Structure formats: C-alpha cells, structure tokens
Amino acid sequence: MNNDLFAGGKKLPLVEDFYTIQGEGYHTGKPAYFIRLGGCDVGCNWCDAKFTWKPELHPLIMTDDIIRRAESFPARAVVVTGGEPTLYPLDYLCGELKRRSVETYLETSGAYSLTGTWDWICLSPKRKSPPNYAIYEKADELKVIIHDKEDLVWAEKNASLVRKECRMYLQPEWSRYEQIIPVIVDYAKSNPRWNISLQAHKFMHIP
After folding, report:
1. Which of 3, 16, 25, 57 is the 20 to 30 Å CA partner of 168?
2. Are 128 and 43 in contact, with CB atoms under 8 Å apart?
3. 199 and 173 Cβ atoms separated by less than 8 Å
4. Nearest one of 153, 139, 149 to 173, comparing CA atoms
5. Which CATH number, 3.10.450.50, 3.20.20.70, 3.40.50.2300, 3.20.20.190, labels domain 7-204?
C-alpha cells in the first residue's frame, strides 16, 4: 500500500457514497451512510460489484469531503464497503468519524490486514483469497455467501475460527437465490447456530 498516494488516508478511491438502509446481516433494517471504495483483487466470479474492482477507474476524493456528507444525515452510522476497503489506510476516516460520534461498521473479506478502528466488523470470507487469521478474533459477524452446496463446507471452516460471540449468517448469492435458498433453509434448521441473511435492500428496490 502506498500511503503517500492516499496521503495517509486523507484521500480515498471513492466509487459511491449514499444514505440508505442496511440490507444484509445483523444490522438489516438500520439506516446508515454507505461509503463504497474501489479496488479488489479477490475476483469472485459471482460478485455483484465488479464495477469496483479497478481502483484506477475511481478518482481519489478528499476524505474530509466524504466525512462532511456522512455526518449531514440523521443516522450516526457509517458502513465502509467495497471492493475491499482494507486495501487502504482507514485510520484517519475512522478517527474523524468517531470524533463526530459516528459509529463505524466495516464489510471486509479479511484478505488484508485490518486498518481503521471499528464498532462492528462483518467478515465475509472468500475462498479464492482466504482471510488473514488475525481477523477471526476481531469479527463481530461472519457472513458467508452461498453459491452452491460446497460453500457450506467453507462456511463451517470459517465458523470454527471465529469467537463464540460472533453472529453467523448464511446468505444466498443473489443470482442463485431461487435455487439455493431451499438448501440454506434446510441447513440452518439442522444447524441453528446459523442465521439466514437476505439482501433485503434488493427486495425493497433501494441501493
């Protein structure tokens, strides 16, 4: 990571930022300001945010401008997602948000070392680029995307590494929702430590 390029986190490659309702996982239904950063080399073939993969397509934006927009909305919560946000130095962003009493939530594959200080970490591990082991002890939520039955084995492998207090979710991959949801429902009924996460924002037709 070239910290000079990002001015120690005072500039970030922004794809989009917007105020909406969290549609996935433990905080489903919670209003929050989303900050989506560009850049990801994990390369999941089913990714629904492939437009974020190439960071050079997304201009470096002053982090202070993003923060000003975030704090202008009623909800005092920010979700940082991607792409893979931990490619970048996020300590400045988190520090300034916390100074303004804004909660910080992270969505990460865990493939890189953690940056920033977070009130909530959602780990969504990907088989093509497995998590850094240090993230398992810090994850508040484990959210595994299920594309086919074999992903349930991957889910259990990751479940064995997180803290006992970590909330655990199986989430159907959107393009395979109809085919895979019966499998996930049956699995959760037999393994009740798992909950099911749906992409509720897509059912609500909101970003």
Report:
1. 16
2. yes
3. no
4. 149
5. 3.20.20.70
